[in-house]
Amino acid sequence: MAQFTLGWEEWLSLPGLGLPAIRAKVDTGAKTSALHAFAIEPFGSSDKPMVRFAIHPDPADPDLEIICSAPLKDRREVTSSNGETELRFVIETEVAMGDRRWPLEVTLTDRGAMAYRMLLGRSAIAEDMIVSPTQSYQQPELSFEAYRSTPRLKQHRRALRLAVLTREPDNYSTRRLIEAAEARGHTLEVIDTSRCYMNISAVGAEVHYDGRRLPHYDAVIPRIGASITSYGTAVVRQFESLGTYCLAGSEGIAMSRDKLYAHQVLARHHIGMPTTAFARSPKDSSNLIQLVGGAPLVLKLLESTQGKGVVLAETKKAAETVISAFRGLKADFLVQSFVKEAAGEDIRCLVVGGKVVAAMRRRGAPDDFRSNLHQGGTAETVRISKAERDTAVRAARAMKLDLAGVDMLRGDDGPKVLEVNSSPGLEGIEKTSRKEIATLVIQHIEAKVAPRSPRARRAPRKATPGAAG
Ligand code: ADP
For residue range 312-341, what is the model confidence (pLDDT) as tens digits? Predict the structure, then answer.
């Protein structure tokens, strides 16, 4: 076998971390190997500890940032060449150099700007290898271009650190998301939205929780209840300003929660919906009734959920009576033409990442025009038309939601959207469709959270000399 010689500097790759090219300094004076990383944070359970960290592989290009995660092997005190002792996280990963691959123990350290992102110590060098300290690059040279040329699909999959923002840690949807995330090797932490607090500053946005700063998450799944929409969207916005991918953005949540805003957005995108008029306390209720084509019509309180504030007025007289009652309550409401042909049924389409992944038809109790399951309705799976599919996808996109439950009625002249839900429950739809929707949600997040940050695709900057490591 040919001799395997290492120079004092070499190119290597760490495939298990998704790092195709790293320039390392070979230093037999040091025992342990080190990787210069930052934002180093342990996560996962005690029986499966993990560590997440970020690295700028190219010292000349601070915009190229790669997030890695790896099983945590140990924490160890390490004394570096400048005599400082530091408690470091230790991981084991495979190193590839030339035609050889071997397992390697690496400590993670954040020692600032080092020209060599890695230090290869003597414990990393096998007995049959020779180190030639006066020569460099005895092994094939690589290039940082590898980071820019790897197609997205071929990129490295890693364990993600995810969080779900919810006040219901035990409900079906939360449990299923945890199960699906763990089955795919990720960690999903449950965070009570109402217990998050934040510092708001131009630099270094943070989210705090129970006396500690929340770590970096690869993605956040907001499931914000209607009762805390305003605070919840503020928490989501904070994660957004940290650069975290949020399955439902703050803007989408805010839009979908405000019926008035939502209808205006849907109309602007030419998405079919029942003719709708809004009012606060109209003096002229008959004009309002005219606006939507007269009775029968549907009146809805703006804060209605689960069909509780939705009334069908069969005659003009009945409509006027309800409007006067709402006016007495000083409640905001909307008036909508009654889609009679829907016959007490509506369609819920679940949209994940711009695709309808499941649909169900909900039918109201025999004497109810409302099909809400909370009002005694039943659900079954349904085949939807292309027009319905397109409408659902466009409605979710208009509301800027990567996960959405789009409710629509089957009108004579096409689908009519009633509502776009930004945290759709998974129980009804999973049980009806017999599909693992939670898994599809996690897979969508995996595709979104590519290991390369979008910044990595920018043109590299001119080289700046860094200090030797
Ligand atoms: P909520 O947000 O309180 O659930 P919705 O607007 O979804 O209120 O209405 C509840 C149910 O009432 C719908 O699922 C649908 O079956 C029925 N419904 C609502 N609006 C109309 C309408 N314009 N025409 C016919 N049925 C309607």
Answer: 999 999 999 998 888 888 888 899 999 999
